[in-house]
Design goal:
Arc Repressor Mutant, subunit A, D-Maltodextrin-Binding Protein, domain 2, 3 domains, five-stranded mixed sheet, 12 helices
Length: 304
C-alpha cells in the first residue's frame, strides 16, 4: 500500500469518526479501507483505532499519529497547490545571460511585454561577453553563438542564424574609398572584436572560391557596441553579425562592403539546464523569445 494513501485515509477516518464514511469520501470500498488501516498499523506496529460495531475512537498512539499526519498532509496539499498555482501564474526569479549587445537590442526591449503577461516573474540579466557556467552560476537561460555545449547537463535550442558583415560609415568610405577586393582590406582601418575565434584573420567564401587574409586593427574591443559606435563615427571598417548592425544598414548609417563574399555564419542558440521538470518561467520565456524572433522574421533578414 502507498503510505501517503494510508495516511490520507487515516486522517479522513479520524476526522469523520467512521471507516465507512472515510472510504466513501475517498471513493474506495470498505474492504480496501480496512486493508489500508491494517497495513498502516502493521507497518507502525501500533494500534491506531479502537473500533467495534457501533463506533470507533483513536488510541493514544492514534491521537499522536493523527496530529503529525494532519500537519504533513496539509503541507503536502499546500505544496501541490503552490506548484499548480505557479503553472497558472508563474512566479520567481528568471536569470538570463547573453552578450551585452544582445541584451541591449533583443532582450531588454521585450521585457515590458513579458512583464505584462507574467507580472510575478522577476528578471535578472547578466550581460557578459563571455560564457558563464550555467549550473555553477545559477543561470536559467543563456543566449550563445556556438552550435554545441560541452556540458551534457546543458541543452540547446536554435533561435536563429546570422551573417557576419563588413560595413563602414559613408563618412569613412568617402575619405578612404570602397574596398573592391578581399585583399584591399589589408590597406584599410579595421575595427576588430577581440572575442572572435580568430580576430585578425578573416576567412571568406564566394561559391567555390575561398580566401583568407590577415588584417591589422585600428581598434580592437571586447564589446560589439564599442565597435559599432566607432564605425558610426567613421573610424574604420567593422566585422559584426547582422543582429547588431542590421538596423544601421537599413537606415544607411553603415554601408555593407564586399557583400558577395561570405564570412562564416553564426548560429544563435538558447542554452538551458537539463531538467526533468523545467520551471514554468524558463519554458515561458524561451517560447516568448522564439515567438518574437519568428514574428520578426529575423533569420531571413539577418542571414541574407
Amino acid at each position: 500500500m502507498d503510505r501517503w494513501s494510508e495516511m490520507d485515509f487515516f486522517v479522513h477516518a479520524a476526522e469523520l469518526g467512521s471507516l465507512s464514511k472515510a472510504a466513501e469520501s475517498l471513493g474506495m470500498s470498505n474492504a480496501a479501507a480496512s486493508r489500508h488501516l491494517s497495513a498502516l498499523e502493521h507497518r507502525l506496529a501500533a494500534r491506531l483505532i479502537d473500533r467495534n460495531t457501533r463506533r470507533m475512537s483513536l488510541t493514544t498512539a492514534g491521537n499522536e499519529f493523527y496530529s503529525r499526519c494532519k500537519s504533513l498532509m496539509s503541507e503536502l496539499k499546500e505544496a501541490e497547490a503552490s506548484v499548480s498555482a505557479s503553472l497558472l501564474e508563474p512566479a520567481g526569479t528568471l536569470t538570463i545571460t547573453a552578450s551585452i549587445s544582445f541584451c541591449m537590442k533583443h532582450i531588454a526591449p521585450l521585457l515590458p511585454e513579458f512583464a505584462r503577461r507574467y507580472p510575478k516573474i522577476n528578471i535578472q540579466i547578466e550581460g557578459a561577453n563571455r560564457y558563464y557556467d550555467l549550473v555553477d552560476s545559477g543561470i536559467d537561460i543563456a543566449i550563445r553563438t556556438r552550435e554545441f555545449e560541452p556540458d551534457s547537463q546543458i541543452s540547446i535550442r536554435k533561435l536563429t542564424e546570422t551573417r557576419r558583415v563588413l560595413a563602414a560609415s559613408p563618412k569613412y568610405l568617402d575619405q578612404h574609398g570602397i574596398p573592391m577586393s578581399v585583399q584591399d582590406l589589408t590597406q584599410h582601418k579595421m575595427l576588430i572584436y577581440s572575442h572572435a575565434n580568430t580576430p585578425n584573420e578573416l576567412n571568406f567564401t564566394r561559391g567555390e572560391e575561398k580566401q583568407s587574409i590577415k588584417v591589422k586593427s585600428t581598434l580592437i574591443a571586447n564589446d560589439g557596441q564599442i565597435i559599432r559606435a566607432a564605425a558610426l563615427e567613421g573610424l574604420g571598417i567593422l566585422v559584426q553579425p547582422n543582429y547588431i548592425i542590421y538596423d544601421d544598414i537599413v537606415a544607411g548609417r553603415l554601408v555593407p562592403i564586399l557583400n558577395d563574399w561570405h564570412l562564416p555564419t553564426l548560429q544563435i542558440n538558447i542554452a538551458f539546464q537539463n531538467r526533468r521538470y523545467m520551471p514554468a518561467r524558463t519554458r515561458l520565456f524561451i517560447e516568448f523569445l522564439v515567438e518574437h524572433f519568428r514574428a520578426q522574421d529575423y533569420e531571413r533578414k539577418w542571414a541574407r
